[in-house]
Amino acid sequence: MTFKKIVGFGDSWMWGDELIDPALDDHPNRHPILIENTDYRERNCFLGQLGQHYGVDTENFGWPGGSLQSTIWCYLWWLENTKISPSDCLVLVALTDANRQSFYNPRHQSYANDPPWNRFVHSAWIHSGNSSNGDDWVKMVQRHMVLTDCPEVHRLNWQQSVLFFQGQQSVSQHPVLQFATRDIPMTLDGIDSLLWPNSSLHYLLEKENQPDLFCEHGHPSRFGHERITKHLIPYIDSAILAE
Questions:
Q1: What is the DSSP letter of 213?
Q2: How would DSSP label each residue in 21-42?
């Protein structure tokens, strides 16, 4: 198998949250979302590091606060809009917490550089106290969670997402590797695209017991992303040899 691009989908771990260019330390609005920080963040997150390792382009559809739903929706948007054949791409899916939900808002725009596929309001934002979307959205998300949130829904979200991306290998004719970033609601065996079915990237880093692998708010540091890259390379190499 050969691929011309690596395309990543998922949450803030895929996006590269908390990776900030040291040159921006004195910036009055220092934040990972700054346009001036995009190149640094995308080069130093594990997706960017993998692109450099294999000498191919990358495209990052991760987003902070993203859910399993928004991961699937972003992937479907990519299938419809990509300029390169999906069969020429390696797809990496960072599966986030299954207790998150996303809601589609066609008018949503948080930042001037928001990509066209980002039209979602995520429950993770509401949980963290971000009310920038307005009280109506906050109340809707809260009521939705009160009425529906339960372990059974978390497991259904997980199964639906893992099985969806497993099926994309045969439907869209491109290799898929998927892995959890944090919590896993259930174990799914026999899914050849799912790495570490009983573990997550957070656990893999945490068990190394090195504080410098994490940033202040729990996302991987640049060194943490380097470790994740090293964990992923053998599996990507195996996928290459298997084709």
A1: G
A2: -GGGTT-TT--TT-GGGHHHHH
> Which pair of tokens denotes residue 216?
């202040």
- What residues form DSSP beta bridges with 194? 178
In tens, the pLDDT along 157-201 reads 999 999 999 999 888 888 999 999 999 999 999 999 999 999 999
Q: What is the pLDDT of residues 200-239, one digit of tens each?
A: 999 999 999 999 999 999 999 999 999 999 999 999 998 7
Q: What is d(CA 110, CA 123) in angstroms, rounded to the nearest whole number? A: 15
Exposure letters 71-93 (e unless 16+ CB within 10 A, then b) = bbbbbebbeeeeeeebeebbbbb
The C-alpha angle with vertex 184 and arms to 241 and 211, in degrees rounded to 5, equals: 85
First vs last C-alpha separation in the chain: 5
What does CATH list as the number for 5-242?
3.40.50
**Is the overall model pTM greater than 0.90, yes or no?**
yes
Q: Show the tokens assigned to 55.
A: 């000498």
Residue 168 CA to residue 78 CA, distance in Å, equals 13
* Every domain of the chain and the residues it spans: 5-242
| Pairwise CA distance, residues 113 & 33, whole Å | 9
Residue 22 CA to residue 232 CA, distance in Å, equals 26
CB of 14 closer than 8 Å to CB of 85: no
Contact 111, 36 (CB under 8 A): no
